[in-house]
């Protein structure tokens, strides 16, 4: 994956922190709590990008259309029918509902997807032969993010993007958030989930996670399904992202607590 942002460019070295927040759909996360939590952070001048998923919302739409959702290692199999619904649900319904939730708390945001302003360019995902129209991120052009911040706008990004031929693809939102955070050398990458961070076998939150511990937990079947890409994405970003967190977004003020005290979820360290 390549980026259009030069880390040596003075515009990269901001006086205010940059924060990438990945959040699930409305059926898993209370967006009102999220917006309330982010509002004072944004008011301090922090550059915030929100990348959202919406897997449950999409699965509900598929079931209503008579299509059974299918997954491979936590990644959604995306046929043409699934892609069409993904664009409508993720880049449409979910994206704009999140923009509205932000506006209710005084946050000036703009809902886009990876295809807008050339933010994300992808190629077909080839590691799994049966995923269909699922893309792999190849390039992030972060210039739009800086333009948005200069105009006090928070980008809200849906995980849909196109390749060089114009073909649209469904993307894993955790991966998109990680790639964007890496491209801007973010100070914080925060995965907002509906669980208390990464849990051990007894259900207790692991406050600090290392790569070795993560490998052990995956081998033992403790980290499974949808948590796997979150953990993998978090660990991959630590070379270019200062701090990566997984927190429970159902708890009010969780993001501010994690940023100030580090006790609202799991933090990843090198």
Helix-strand blueprint:
Elements lengths: L1 E2 L14 E6 L7 H13 L3 E6 L2 H10 L6 E2 L2 E2 L3 H24 L5 E5 L6 E5 L10 E6 L2 H8 L3 E5 L1 E3 L5 E3 L2 H11 L4 E6 L14 E2 L1 H9 L7 H10 L6 E6 L5 H7 L4 E4 L2
Parallel strand pairs: 1-8, 2-3, 2-12, 3-9, 6-9, 12-14, 13-15
Antiparallel strand pairs: 4-5, 7-8, 10-11, 14-15
What would you say about this model in short?
The protein is α/β, with parallel strands linked by helices. It is 34% helix and 23% strand. It has a single domain, classed as Acetylglutamate kinase-like (Carbamate kinase, 3-Layer(aba) Sandwich).
How would you portray this structure in words?
The protein has 270 residues and is of the alpha/beta class. The protein has a single domain (15-268), classed as Carbamate kinase. Helix content is 34%, strand content 23%. The protein has eight helices and 15 strands. It has helices at residues 31-43, 55-64, 80-103, 143-150, 173-183, 211-219, 227-236, 254-260; strands at 2-3, 18-23, 47-52, 71-72, 75-76, 109-113, 120-124, 135-140, 154-158, 160-162, 168-170, 188-193, 208-209, 243-248, 265-268. The strands form four sheets. It has an eight-stranded mixed beta sheet with strand order 6-9-3-2-12-14-15-13, sandwiched between helices. The chain has a three-stranded mixed beta sheet with strand order 1-8-7, covered by helices on one side. Strands 4-5 form a two-stranded antiparallel ribbon. β4 and β5 (75-76) form a beta hairpin. α1 packs across α3 and α2 (55-64) packs across α3. The protein is globular. The two termini are 21 Å apart. Mean pLDDT is 89; it is low at 2-13.
């Amino acid at each position: 994956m390549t980026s259009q942002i030069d880390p040596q460019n003075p515009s990269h070295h901001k006086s205010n922190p940059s924060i990438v927040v990945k959040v699930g759909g409305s059926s898993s996360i209370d967006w009102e709590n999220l917006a309330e939590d982010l509002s004072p952070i944004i008011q301090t001048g922090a550059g915030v990008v929100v990348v959202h998923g919406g897997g449950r919302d999409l699965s509900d739409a598929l079931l209503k259309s008579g299509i059974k959702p299918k997954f491979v290692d936590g990644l959604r199999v995306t046929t043409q029918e699934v892609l069409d619904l993904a664009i409508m649900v993720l880049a449409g319904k979910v994206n704009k509902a999140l923009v509205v939730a932000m506006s209710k708390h005084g946050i000036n945001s703009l809902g886009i997807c990876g295809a807008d302003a050339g933010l994300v360019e992808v190629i077909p995902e080839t590691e799994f032969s049966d995923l269909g129209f699922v893309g792999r991120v190849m390039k992030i052009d972060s210039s739009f993010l800086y333009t948005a911040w200069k105009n006090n706008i928070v980008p809200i990004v849906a995980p849909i993007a196109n390749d060089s031929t114009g073909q649209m693809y469904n993307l894993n939102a955790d991966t998109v958030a990680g790639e964007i955070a890496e491209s801007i050398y973010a100070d914080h990458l925060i995965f907002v989930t509906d669980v208390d961070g990464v849990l051990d076998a007894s259900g207790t939150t692991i406050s600090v996670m290392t790569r070795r511990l993560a490998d052990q937990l995956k081998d033992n079947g403790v980290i499974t399904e949808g948590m796997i890409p979150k953990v993998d994405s978090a660990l991959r970003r630590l070379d270019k992202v200062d701090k990566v967190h997984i927190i429970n977004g159902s708890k009010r003020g969780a993001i501010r607590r994690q940023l100030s005290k580090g006790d609202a979820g799991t933090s990843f360290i090198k």
